[in-house]
Design goal:
single chain, about 475 residues, alpha+beta, 3 domains, four-stranded antiparallel sheet, about 20% strand, flat
């Protein structure tokens, strides 16, 4: 049986597609490689994220003052004052406190007015003498010659030592609106002097009806009377800032400042959790079975094994503690399992908060030094991690650059091969198009020849020649 050619081009189109598909096979292989590299990159980014907060976590361990935490107990005085601590300066201790008097500001209140917006005071000045005796003048006239106008003019002066407001005093229904002008600072140090207001040609007089003098706050600390020039008292005790809220003369309460072991324990747990995140990732990468695609992961990766080895070795080391009474040449060693940190059979670290709290309560400075000292656990773990996390030259940066470069090279190879396939496709398409045209012409000529011979035996010969 002879060859049969399809003049409609079906067979030729199939042959063309098969040829083009064969040309595209190397591209598919490159795309598969790229997919694996992208999977590795995604996995690497997950690994890199385990280190993302290490610097911030370790910043709490850079020295003993940053690591230590304190808590405040005010007992019955919780409503009398607020306390904030500077943990780098404060020391634990208990103090008996009595707030006999809050600091007060210099202030005046005016006579009453029927309408606070009615500009009927004429033209004049509000004059104040500030804490240093310097004279402050505020000109009032036109639309500002009302209570609200005066308050706005005073408050518009940013460097003024006073501020103003208008209040409604219902004790006088016919003239309830009054102007209050107050010093901006509490206590005698912020005291200002208010002379009479100076106004001319007004339909209503503005005058000071009552004034309050500035006073300092008065406290008793362990029975000793102390004055403060304001209600917000920075460094009242070393590292202790007070915010006085109410005075209760004769009521004594205890301010107790102690180490906050729970908060310090939380810091250590946070560091252990981050280390566990790294160890867990490495363990998963080295756990394989017959279904594991090791080409898209980091199984057996020497860099990861190096990180794990350094961390595990560090966990078994002792950390030196120098006691004041000890020989500086022979420090005692504190091991992590003594403060509640140990390895489990799973390869993860465990942190026993109770053990840590007992250890730090018994040996506060020793445990703190073992963690935050120059040769302490946090310092050494930072040294280990810096080799991996250092921008630009660290191992993580190098590995990421390497992965990105491989993906970029594959992309370039794909682009080059795509161009070659495009050119080859155009060439094959032209060749197959000419072949299809030639076959069509041959078939047409055969049909004409067959018709001219009248369909005899010669026709059968021609038909056989054309694949019929």
């Amino acid at each position: 049986m002879g060859l049969r050619f399809d003049a409609s081009g079906g067979q030729l189109n199939q042959a063309l597609k098969a040829a083009i598909e064969a040309e595209r096979q190397p591209i598919k292989q490159l795309e598969a490689r790229k997919g694996k590299e992208e999977a590795r990159m995604k996995l690497f980014q997950d690994f890199k994220s385990k280190f993302s907060n290490f610097d911030r976590t370790l910043s709490e361990f850079t020295d003993f003052n940053k690591f230590k935490e304190f808590k405040v107990d005010l007992g019955d005085g919780a409503n009398n004052m607020g306390v904030t601590l500077d943990k780098e300066k404060v020391q634990p201790g208990s103090y008996d406190i009595e707030i006999a008097q809050l600091a007060k500001r210099s202030s005046i209140i005016s006579n009453g007015f029927e309408d606070p917006n009615l500009a009927n005071l004429g033209v004049g000045y509000v004059v104040v003498y500030g804490p240093k005796g310097d004279k402050e003048e505020v000109y009032i006239g036109g639309k500002n010659a009302s209570l609200n106008g005066i308050a706005s003019a005073i408050n518009a002066k940013q460097d003024s030592s006073v501020k103003a407001t208008v209040v409604k005093d219902s004790s006088d229904p016919d003239a309830p609106w009054r102007l209050i002008v107050s010093a901006k600072k509490d206590g005698i140090i912020g005291e200002v002097q208010f002379p009479e207001f100076y106004f001319l040609d007004g339909k209503k007089d503005l005058r000071v009806e009552k004034d309050n003098e500035a006073e300092n706050a008065v406290l008793k600390v362990n029975g000793f009377e102390i004055e403060a020039d304001g209600n917000k008292i920075p460094d009242f005790l070393s590292g202790v800032n007070l915010d006085l809220k109410q005075a209760k003369e004769g009521q004594t309460f205890t301010l107790n400042i102690s180490e906050d072991t729970a908060k310090m324990s939380g810091k250590v747990k946070g560091l252990v959790d981050q280390i566990n995140g790294i160890l867990e990732f490495i363990t998963k990468q080295n756990t394989v079975d017959d279904k594991t695609d090791t080409s898209s992961g980091f199984t057996g990766d020497t860099s990861l094994q190096s990180i794990e080895f350094r961390i595990r070795n560090l966990m078994h080391e002792g950390f030196p503690v120098w006691d004041n009474s000890a020989d500086p040449e022979t420090p005692r060693m504190v091991f992590l399992n003594q403060i509640g940190i140990s390895f489990e059979k799973t390869g993860q670290l465990s942190f026993k908060e109770d053990s840590f709290n007992k250890a730090i309560s018994k040996d506060f400075y020793g445990v703190a030094q073992a963690i935050t000292g120059d040769y302490g656990f946090a310092t050494q773990i930072k040294s280990v991690m810096t080799n991996y996390t250092r921008p630009g030259t660290g191992l993580l940066a190098g590995r990421e650059t390497s992965l990105r470069n491989r993906i970029t090279r594959i992309d370039r190879d794909i682009e080059n091969k795509e161009r070659n396939v495009t050119r080859k496709t155009e060439s094959l398409t032209q060749q197959f198009s000419r072949m299809q045209s030639t076959i069509a012409n041959m078939q047409q000529q055969g049909q004409q020849l067959q018709a001219s011979l009248g369909g005899g035996g010669g026709g059968n010969l021609i038909s056989q020649l054309m694949g019929g």
